[in-house]
Amino acid sequence: MPKVSIIGATSWGITLSLLLARKGIRVSLWARTASEARELQESRLQSCGNHVYEVPPIDIPSNLIITDDPKEAVTDAKAVILPVTSQTMRQNVRIIQPYLNKTMIITSATKGIELGTNRRMSQVIQEEVGPQLSRNICVMSGPNLAKEIMLGLPAATVVASENAEASRTMQRLLSTQNLCVFTHTDVIGVELGGALKNIIALGAGMADGLGYGDNAKAAFITRGLTEISALGVSLGANPLTFSGLAGLGDVITTCASKLSRNHYVGFELARGRSLEDILKSMNEVAEGVTTTKVAWELARKLGLEMPITEKVYRVLYEGLSPRDAATELMGTPVNHELTGRKWRLFTFLRNRKS
Q: What is the DSSP letter of 135?
């Protein structure tokens, strides 16, 4: 029976732990402290610190071990999955790095970009584990609301890697009757789709909070998807990836579901609450807040025209009201639907045809 190590007792980490344990795989879930591990055991995975999971109490399978010892968590694992927040990814990888070996597959299940460095999570992992493990790195993304998967509802996800053997191994480990796992080779596109879609979710939440209706929301989502696709292509992604599960699929879920943290933040901003107040009231991280800042910085660096990202950034960081942001967006000059300053979408399509 293989062993999988889950680093981080987030809601997604707990969900993946249960999914794998119910499949008969040995799972070791790493918690940050002994008290956190004990609280998870005693509450039957219902609460720990700031986390409260709105599902019935769960009987912990005997093949699921919760530990605060990183060596115990990682040793002898076939795969290590990191469902931590993007701004703590580097710290967590440094903790487990001494216990990794060259046979282990390391998978990021995080949808964010590191502030300051603008690094994707696979890049952060690679920098910390070194070249000897770089071919073992995978990324996981898709329309994956943790609560639905924990309850056994049908879902699909994507695992991407430059190493096809590694992604196929993760596909076999993660696939269940209710979770369909696809493989992919576009690591950049899968990662950026999962991260950048949170910007769109923030804006969609604002549109809902302002009561703008489905026409406006559909237009915003579609234009936002085109915009993040252009950024993705500029960074080396295949634009077709953004029409798949890690792009459009995740956009639909995150922009529509009441379980979406980023949609919630946007909705509450439109109701007049401050960003500080909203974030303090939340149990978990809304990755879109930091991702918007990174995407805005990248757009400026690359000279890309990204009006939606710019407006969401100004709402979050410069005090622009969501209503004024919407008014400014509606007044933005428009041209062909697939063009924008320094976008490369047409170039890519021409190259494909030739």
A: G
Distance CA 168, CA 144 (A): 19
Contact call for residues 261 and 285 (beta carbons, < 8 A): yes
d(CA 1, CA 8) in angstroms, rounded, equals 22
Q: Is the pTM of this model over 0.90?
A: yes
Residue 324: how many other CB atoms lie within 10 Å:
13
C-alpha gyration radius of the chain: 20
Q: Is 197 a catalytic residue?
A: yes
Token digits of residue 323: 């209503």
Q: What is the pLDDT of residues 103-150, one digit of tens each?
A: 999 999 999 999 999 999 999 999 999 888 999 999 999 999 998 998
How open is the CA angle 265-266-271, to the nearest 5 degrees?
Answer: 95
Q: CA triplet 86, 82, 73: central angle to 5 degrees?
A: 140
Domains of the chain: 3-185 (3.40.50.720), 188-353 (1.10.1040.10)
Task: Look up tokens 């999570």; give the residue.
Answer: 121
Q: From the candidates 197, 217, 293, 311, which is the catalytic residue?
A: 197
Q: Low-confidence residues of the chain, pLDDT below 50?
A: 48-52, 354
